[in-house]
Amino acid sequence: MEEWGIIQQLINKLGHGKVLTGDALKARYSHIWEMDRPIQAKALLLPDSTEDLSAIMKTCYQFGQPVVVHGGLTNLVGSTQSSLQDVVISMEKMNRILEVDEENRTLTVEAGAILESVQLAALEKDLMFPLNFGAKGSAQIGGAISTNAGGLKVFKYGMTRNLVMGLEVVLADGRVINSLKKLIKDNTGYDLKQLFIGAEGTLGVITKAVLKLIEKPKSRNSALLAFKDYTRVVKTLRWLESSLTGTLSAYEVLWQVTYRPMAAAVFGINLPLAPDFPYYVLMETSGADQDEDRRRLEDLLSDALHHGMIADAALSDSPAQQEQLWELREHMDHVVARCQHDQHFDISLPIGQIEEYVQGVLKELDKIAFVRECYVFGHMADGNIHLIVDKTKAGEESVNAVNEAVYTPIQSFGGSVSAEHGIGMHKKAYLHYSRSPDEISLMQSLKQMMDPLGILNPGKIL
Ligand SMILES: Cc1cc2nc3c(=O)[nH]c(=O)nc-3n(C[C@H](O)[C@H](O)[C@H](O)COP(=O)(O)OP(=O)(O)OC[C@H]3O[C@@H](n4cnc5c(N)ncnc54)[C@H](O)[C@@H]3O)c2cc1C
C-alpha cells in the first residue's frame, strides 16, 4: 500500500511520463555490459530539471525510500546495482550544455550530458575539456564527477576533481545546494563540492556542474614504443618528461599479454610494432607547433633507440593514424570480449614497484585453476594499472579468490585498491586495505550526517 503511496505521489509531482513502472522497466538495465538483464527497481524516474529532482528527493525522504542514481552505467564497481525495493533516478534527460564561457574558460552543464558531447562543445570554441577515457561515448559528466574519474590525461591535467569549479547538488532531503561558481580561488571555509566528487551518489545527487576548460593544444603527436624491460619504461618516462618540457600529455603502458590481442583486433595483420616485446607504451605530446613538436619527438625517439632505451617505435603520421593507435588503449572491450568471465581491477602503486607487484600477482593467479589469463595495462605515469582477469568460473567464490590474490599484496606496497573506479559494491570488503579505521569511521559520520535515513545509494562504499 505504502509502495503505491510513494509511486502515486511521484506521479502526482512529476507526471506519468517521468515515472516508469511494471513492464516499462523490462527494457531498462543497470550496466551497459548487462543490457540483457532487466533492472531491479520499484520505479525508474526521469527528471528533467533540478526542481523535479528536488521534488523526488523530498518525497523519497518523507517515505524513507532508498534511491539509486543512474548515469551512463559504465562504472566498473557495481555502484549502479539496485534492488526491487529501490527507486532508480536516471539522469538521461538532464543532458543540456548550458553555457560555454570562452572568457572564463568554463563550461556549465547538466549532470546527464555525455562526456563526449561535453568534449565536443568545448572543442567548437577552440577549448578543451581534458577528461578522457574509453567509455566517453556513454559515461555522463555527473557519473564522471561522482566517481572522480581519471582516464588517459590525469598525469597532465589531473583527475575530475581538478576540473570541477562548481556544482549544484540535491541533498537527501531535497534541499538544493547551488554553488555553480566560476572561481579559481575560493578559500571560504570547507570546500563542500569536493565531498560530492567521488561519493558515488551516496551523499547527494549532482544536477549541474561548472567545468574548467583549457586552451586546445595546437599540436598532437602520438607514438607507440616497445621496451625490453620495465626499468627502461620508467626511465624513459622521466627522460621524456624532462626533455619535452611540459608537452608530454599521456604515457600508457600495455603488457605484451594485452598488446597482442588489442593490436590484432585494431590492426589485423599489419601491426604497428612486432608483438614479441614484453612492454608497449602509447605516448602523446600536446603542444603549440605541429611540425616543430613532431620533429622534436622524432629526434628524441631516435636518440632513445640509438641508446637502447626503447627497442622499437612507431610514430603516427596523421590524425587518423593517431586515432587508430589510441584504439589500442581505449577499446579494451576487445579484450573483454575474449573473456569467459571477466573481473576488473584498478590498482594504484608507486611507479617503480609496479612490475614487482604484477609479477607477484601473476604467480598467485597462476595457482588458481579457473584463471585463464590476466590482461595488464594502465596509466603508467599515474602509477595506476588495470588488470582484467579472464576466468572459466563465475560466482562469489571465484571472485573472492581472485580478489585475495590481487588485493592482499597491495598493503605491503603502500598501494590503493581503487585508483580511479571507486568502491561501489565490488571493493567494499577491501576498503580497509587502503583506508585506516579512523578514516572509515569519519566517512561513516559524514554519511550519517548528510544522509541520516541512509536512502542515497544504500550499501555502496561503506
Ligand atoms: C570501457 C571502459 C573504460 C573505462 N575507463 C576508465 C578510465 O580510464 N578511468 C576511469 O576513471 N574510469 C573508467 N571507466 C569507468 C567509468 O567509465 C567511470 O567510472 C565513469 O566515470 C562512470 O560514469 P557513468 O555516467 O557511467 O556513471 P554510472 O556508472 O552511471 O554511475 C557511477 C556512480 O555514480 C553515481 N552517479 C551517477 N550520476 C550521478 C549524479 N548525477 N549524481 C550523483 N551520483 C551519480 C551512480 O549512482 C554510481 O554510484 C571505464 C569504463 C568502461 C566501461
Note down, in words, how this protein is organized.
The protein is of the alpha+beta class and 462 residues long. The protein contains 15 helices and 18 strands. The strands form four sheets. The protein has a seven-stranded antiparallel sheet, sandwiched between helices. It has a five-stranded antiparallel sheet with strand order 5-6-10-8-9. β17 (371-379) and β18 (384-391) form a beta hairpin. α8 (256-267) crosses α10. It is globular, with a radius of gyration of 23 Å. The chain starts with a helix and ends in a 12-residue tail after the last helix. The mean pLDDT is 96. Bound molecules: flavin-adenine dinucleotide (FAD). Residues 68-76, 79-80, 91, 111, 133-135, 139-140, 142-144, 146-147, 149-151, 200-201, 205-206, 332-333, 420-421, 457, 460 line the site of flavin-adenine dinucleotide.
